[in-house]
Structure formats: C-alpha cells, structure tokens
Description:
Shape: globular
Radius of gyration: 15 Å
Helix content: 25-40%
Structural class: alpha/beta
Largest sheet: 7 strands, mixed
Number of helices: 5
Mean pLDDT: 95
Oligomer: single chain
Amino acid sequence: MTQHSTALLVIDLQKDILRNAHDADGVVSRVVGLVDRAHRGNVPVIWVQHNDEGMPLGSDQWALDDRLVPADDDARIDKTYGDSFSNPELPALLERLGVRRLVMAGAQTDQCIRGTWHSALMRGYDTVLVSDAHTTEDIEFDGVELPARATIAHTNMYATWGSIYPDARGTAIRADQVEFV
C-alpha cells in the first residue's frame, strides 16, 4: 500500500448536521476545493459520518451534502461518538497509509471537530484545522447564547495558540493556505 504523510479528514458534513450550520454553503464549497486538490495530489481523503437514532445509517439525514461526492477509492468511516478516533478503523487506516499529518474540516466545531482534533494531537498526529472549513450552529448553554461565529473563532484561536503536544503540533489555517505536500 502506498505510504502518505498527509491525509484530508472530512468530518460529518451531513445533511442533518448542516441544516442550521453557520455558513454551510461556504464551508461545503471550500471543502469541495480541498477534496479536489487532495485528489489531484494523490492525498488520501477520509470521509467520516456520524450515525445515531436521529441520523440512522443510510438515511437521508445521514447522507453527505449533495455537493460532496467521495471518489471510489476514498476511505469511509462511520462513528457513533463525537471523536472520530472512537472507531478503531480510523487509527488502523492511518497506520496502514503511513499518515502522520491530518488536515481536518467538517462539523460540528464544538463537538466532533474538537474531539477529533484533541484525539489526533494526543496520538501524535500533526494536525491542521482548516479555519474556514468547519462549522457549527448557534446554541444556548447554561443560559448563555453561544453564536456559531464565536465558537468557530475560539476554536481557531485555540488550535493556533494551544496546540503543542510532546509529539505533535497543531495549527489553524484557511483553505487557500493548505498545502498537502
């Protein structure tokens, strides 16, 4: 199997999750561009999809946005928890591919993106969060309004400033700055 140092991880850009997401069209458009660039550069693209009672596997809610079309040789990972690494198929796949650097995009910023981000760094993967290619929705928690834009900005700040682990580094950069080499 071909060894790759970098892979693009696209997390949960599914119809139900994107329904109320901030800048969903812009995020999906930027991810389409990232996927195209990854494919042209022979960089593996890994699609992660969440399923639960509200988004059963194979349902319309579970389906990826119509503009996102995985290639036949792209990997697909299903999960039932926020952290994509909760499915042991993901770390096994990354090991087989020789991946040491992940470029991440997707949804929900405050759940699956953050959970996967931390898990990747703790496992020693250098991790690039695509700052304009992840999204969430406005929420209220404990009586506090949390606008999606603030959650996204805070996550980007944290990914830029707080992502130094013993064996890995993280950063956040815009889609147009991502280099797959």
